[in-house]
Amino acid sequence: RSVDLNNILTIVCSNLESTIDKNQATIVYDNLPTIVADSSQLVQLFQNLLDNAIKYCREEPPKIEISVELRGNEYLFAVKDNGIGIDRQSFERIFQIFQRLHDSEEYSGTGIGLAICQKIVELHGGRIWVESQLGAGTTFYFTINSQSS
Ligand code: ATP
Ligand code: MG
Question: pTM, whole model, 2 decimals?
């Protein structure tokens, strides 16, 4: 049940390889810790967040920065993008199933990715939230209890 997050990100980047290549996306992170978590759920969590960060991008190629720090008894993660952003009024709504802000042919999707992320984070004793400004990129934050299993 110990998972090396570097391995998780390697799997996620390989799953998303064609999207990353097509959009010329860059994903950067420093050495990540090994944590107690469900590895397939963590793959899904990061994959949904990175898929969004690449999909909801602006003209310039997506650049995504992943960081983590240990805060007391929990890890605090940040996934930061340089994409189209989200208006403040929608910060809560996007985590609900089938809620989509950018419902056009340009950005296709079903609106379940973030609802799954929220569920997975809660199963790991954490919470997830977003900070963003329209046109200025988005950062998703989430915590995972360092003793979770
Ligand atoms: P799915 O993930 O099921 O394919 P989706 O991407 O539309 O579809 P979610 O991942 O749940 O669904 O995201 C909900 C909505 O939140 C999106 O439709 C989009 O409008 C907005 N959103 C999510 N991530 C970002 C982001 N990084 N930048 C800007 N908007 C975002
Ligand atoms: Mg999505």
Answer: 0.97
